[in-house]
Amino acid sequence: MEPTVDQYVPSDYLPILIQFAAALGFVIFALTLTHLLGPKRSSAVKDAAWESGIESVGDARTPISYKYFMTAILFVLFDVEIIFLYPWAVNFKEFGMEGFLQMIVFMSLLMAGFFYVIKKGILKWE
Asked: Which of 63 and 91 is assigned the larger pLDDT?
C-alpha cells in the first residue's frame, strides 16, 4: 500500500535526524578537541570562586525578599500570554467571531489576575 499525501513515513524525518546527529557530533568533537589541546594549568587563584570579577565573601544563603520572586513569577506568567496571542493574531480571520469571543474571555481573565496583583500590592517595592 502506497502512502498517501496526508501520511508521513519515517524516511520523511531523515533530514532532521541527520541534522541533529551532525550538530551533536560537532559539539562532542569541539568539546573533546578543546579538552585535549587546551592548557591544563591549575593554581589557588585560578581555582578560587569569583562572581563577576568580585571575590565571594560570606554565606550564599542570605535571605532574599519574596517580592523579587513574585515579580519574576508574574513576569513569566504574563509573558506566556504572548504564546497564546501570537497564533490567535495570525489566524484572526479564520477564527471568526467565536475565536474573538474566546480571546475576549481569555484577556478578561488575564486582566482580572493583573488587577488582583495590583490590588494586593505585589508590584510595589519599598
From this structure: 91
